[in-house]
Amino acid sequence: MSVLWGRRILAGAMTLVAAAAMTACGSKTSDEGGAAGVTADVSGDTVKVGLLNSLSGTMAISEVTVRDSIMLAVEEINAAGGVLGKKIQPIGEDGASDWPTFAEKAEKLISEDRVAAVFGCWTSASRKAVKPVFEKNKALLFYPVQYEGLEQSPYIFYTGATTNQQIVPGLDYLKAQGTKSVYLVGSDYVFPRTANKIIKAYAAANGMTVVGEDYAPLGSTEFGTIVNKVKSSGAKAVFNTLNGDSNVAFFKEYKSAGLTAAAMPVVSVSIAEEEVKGIGTQYLEGQLTAWNYYQTTPGAANGKFVAAYKAKYGADKPTSDPMEAAYVSVYLWKAMVEKAGAFDVEKVRGVSDGITFDAPEGLVTVDGKTQHIAKTARIGKVGADGLITEVWNSGKPIAPDPYLKTYPWASGLS
Amino acid sequence: MTAVTPAPPSTAGAPAPADIAPGSRSGGRSRLRAAAGFAFGAALLFAVAPLALSDFRLALLAKYLCVAMVAVGIGIAWGRGGMLTLGQGVFFGLGGYAMAMHLKLADAGPGGMPDFMQLYGQLDELPVWWRPFASPWFALPATVLLPMAVAFGLGSLVFRRRVRGAYFAILSQALAAAMVILLIGQQGTTGGTNGLTDIQGFFGYDLDDPVNQRMVYFIIAGVLLALLALARQLIHSRYGELLVAVRDSEERVRFLGYDPASVKLVAYVVAAGMAGLAGALFVPAVGIISPALIGIVPSIEFVIGVAVGGRATLLGPVLGAVAVAWARTALSERFPGTWTYLQGLLFVVVVAFLPGGLASLWALARRRDAGPEQSRRGWPAPARRRASRAEAHR
Where do the record's region annotations for Disordered lie (chain B) (predicted)? Predict the structure, then answer.
């Protein structure tokens, strides 16, 4: 009897599925055009924008600072009259350091809240997860963090550095210092692995040798083995793409193994002022970083930014490169909207080329073709006070080249 | 987690009678009730939800229902079989990756390669182990059979050696951790931490089209109902009784001449198959599968939903999984900064005050109503004793 019931239930369910599938036949992948985008709701006297950052989970420590500086930019713009006469109404969502959650929240911001633009994401994995959502809905994302390049979505503006604005200048600096061998240490995820691929191609073409390459799982604190390998490798410098907590353990181990910044400097690309505070200045003093902005970067625009940030969030809060890039992204969006005279995504994209902004890091210019921005590269040295001071800069903004097409040695990479 | 403390005299929170009593002994009323329940569920999923919810919310519900499918399997393996499966993410991932690999290859077209392989792997041709997944006739069965095969292999080794309790839980966790490390390390061929994303089509249908998204939802709802029907059959069969017996006293079952290892193996393999199917359907619904979805934390979250709902019942795991997933979304939208604390609080409250899960509320209420009438319902005395033993093993 019960077997019979099961079959009937099953048959019923299957019929329902079949019926539903037959009535619901949407467009095929071969069809042209696809879904029309969701238009932003700008009918009232406010315009909504989405803020998508991790407020919980492992990435929260970094992403909360980005959220804070986006909020600072929004408040400044609102105080100065808003965008096209409309006040910005920020809608915050928590990505929870979980990539599918980022996709879910992006969809919510676009289709439920109908925001005009979204600012946020940090890790490459979260960006890759939301990219199809923005492309499907033809909505805009402003991504404020340096990343591994090799991407160019029509619906993302990249306001952080791509590889030729951060990693390549970092290598140029080491080369100019006469460094012949490097050791690569990174967290095990997409950015370090891709960055190291680029570093190896650069080294091969520039007479440098990569004497070792090691990855630690994200969040790992076991660096005894890696530091021993680094020590015995005889490398002249270390290129460090570790992320988050792992840096604390790595630099403690590095110092206790007797390695010093003078004998074997470490160039880090994910350690900014906020992270220096967390790792401890005593472990980092004298080590190098590669970024586009430091709290100590000179200029009136930066003075104003640092003062406003400290006034709002506390005098002990440092400003860092991703925070600056996030702050800039809101102003760039405002400039694009004002130039287009509308919030419409396609119009905004259409006028983006050549938009400039007098940013804390200096003048930045949007490149309409790649939707990245031209930025000045800066190598800095960690000081005893926890701040980073510039020791070298590229002199002028470097045009973005996410696929490294203008570098002959990188021809095999993309 | 088998507790060693003696059974408390109270049976509060024991699974509902109808779920313990085998089908052969319960009357036609139980079957009728079940059929009515399924009809109600079908009406809710196929008529009410699509009408009441926006496209966005319906897509979220599709995601929750996939988690619920995993929960049905955990309900069988853990609630009925006593195996605390803390590594279901592995099977979910195997199913998800099998499906995503096929869809990525279908997107790339014949002879094409998924975009990330050129970017991160600089491969000139498709890796050998990707090739079979180009065919739907291989990929679709693989989403279910691959997890089942892995579960069979692991289960055969583990259950024969009488590994159980915390050791089994730790082993399944280790498997989830190992799989994540493997996937991340092979960035060029697996997409690394990014996973497989940006999936455009589903067997020729454009996933960007809301109509097709709706179709995916209907398929998921239908499959969930089918899995529930299957689970009910299993629970109410002779095998289902044997499984509960193994959970409660493995030695005694062995003494009676059964092989407890095979009994547990079947439940474990079925749960793995359900998780694999859930993973496979998760991919078109959400458009992503990544190591972050299959590691230790998501594996534990699968179990939490089941615990909240009530693991020993048929519907408890499903409702618990959907409720937890829904609460996660709702709380995080309303309180973006503090929702993780609220989620933690919810679990503490349920575990501390309702160890049998939310389903035990229902059972408790029903027992109060029924009072002494209970014995007239064809609820045999041995089964009742078994129910209280089950409680002892919480």
Answer: 1-25, 372-394
